[in-house]
Structure formats: C-alpha cells, structure tokens
Design brief:
Length: 78
C-alpha cells in the first residue's frame, strides 16, 4: 500500500474502516486465501460504502474473486 500512498492514492477499504488488515478477496471457490482486489482513490474522492460480496448463486461461486463494491462521492473540480 505504501507505493500507492506516495502517488496520492489510498485504499478505499482502509479509508472507511481505518483497519490496516484488508479483507481477502481471492478464494479457492469457498475459502478466502489472499488479498488481491482493491479500489484506490485520491483525496478528492469520498468513500461512502465499501463491502466485499461473498454471495454464492445456487451453491456456486461466479468467480474465484469476491467482488469489491464501493460507493464513491466525487468532489467537483473548478
């Protein structure tokens, strides 16, 4: 995460939760194993909501990654 902070980007999950331990998004079709997916934002973006969708459909996972869902509020630029 440090590389992104120097460039002016911060992880949306961290901004909202202030928890440095991120949610695992990659799984082996059931058991979360790794943190791979993230949304990075600048200070001009407000993170309103962040969640990892771990829903399954008919006992099946649609992907080997859980979707990262964020709601963002963008500030107007002059």
């Amino acid at each position: 995460m440090a590389r992104h902070s120097k460039a002016g980007f911060t992880d949306a999950e961290f901004l909202l939760t202030k928890n440095a331990r991120r949610t695992k998004t990659y799984h082996t079709f059931g058991k979360p194993t790794s943190v791979l997916d993230a949304v990075f934002v600048t200070s001009q973006v407000k993170v309103k909501k962040h969640r990892i969708n771990q829903q399954i459909f008919g006992n099946k996972y649609p992907s080997d990654h859980f979707p990262t869902i964020v709601e963002l509020d963008f500030e107007k630029r002059n």
